[in-house]
Amino acid sequence: MNERVGEVVSINPAKCRVRVRFYDQDSLISEELQVVVRGTLKNKDYWMPKVGEAVFCSFTAQNKGYVLGAVYSEGDPPPVISESKRHIEFEDGTILEYDSSDHTLSIECAGPINIVGNVTVSGDVLASGVSLKSHTHAETGGTTSPPNGGG
After folding, report:
1. Mean pLDDT of all residues belonging to the chain
2. Exposed end of the chain (fewer CB within 10 Å): N or C?
3. What is the set of domains in the chain, with CATH numbers?
4. Main-chain dihedrals φ then ψ at residue 25, nearest 5 degrees
5. Cβ–Cβ < 8 Å for 10, 30
C-alpha cells in the first residue's frame, strides 16, 4: 500500500469519485479515485469532499486508489476540540452535534427542518421560552386562545 495526501481538483458525484492533485509528485493529477464511505448496501452513507479539500489517499499494489477521508491542517483546523463530541458542520452553517459527556444532541439548521413520520416526545417541549407541558391559556369560554407567555 502507498499512502499520500493531496488536494481534490474535481468531483464526480454520480460515481462517488474524485480527482486529486499530489504536490509531492510535480502536481500530478490522479485518475478518478473512489471515495470510501461507511455503508453502501442496506445502510447507506454518502459523502463527497469539496474541490480544494485535503484528502488522504491509499493505493493498492496495482495502483488502484481510494480516498479514505479528509484531513485537517493549520489553515483548515477542526471546528471543535473535544473527546466527547461528534460534530458535523455544513457549508451553509447547519450543525449537527452529539456530546456523549452530557447526552445532548444539538441541531442548528440554516433552513427548515422537515420530519416525515410520527413524532413522539417524552419530556417537555420549549418554543420561544413557552413550555408545551405547563403553559396556560386565557379563559375565553370557547375556542382556545393562544398560550400565555412564559411557562
Report:
1. 91
2. N
3. 2-70 (2.40.50.230), 79-113 (no CATH), 121-151 (no CATH)
4. -130, 60
5. no
The CA distance from 120 to 51, in Å, is 40
In angstroms, the CA 151 to CA 131 distance is 5
- Please give the sequence-ordered ranges of beta strands (E in DSSP) within 23-102, or none if there are none: 28-29, 33-35, 54-59, 65-70, 85-89, 95-99
The rounded distance, in Å, linking the Cα atoms of 109 and 96 is 8
Give Cβ neighbours of residue 148 (< 8 Å, ≥ 6 apart): 135, 136, 137, 138
Residue 149's identity, in one-letter code, is: G
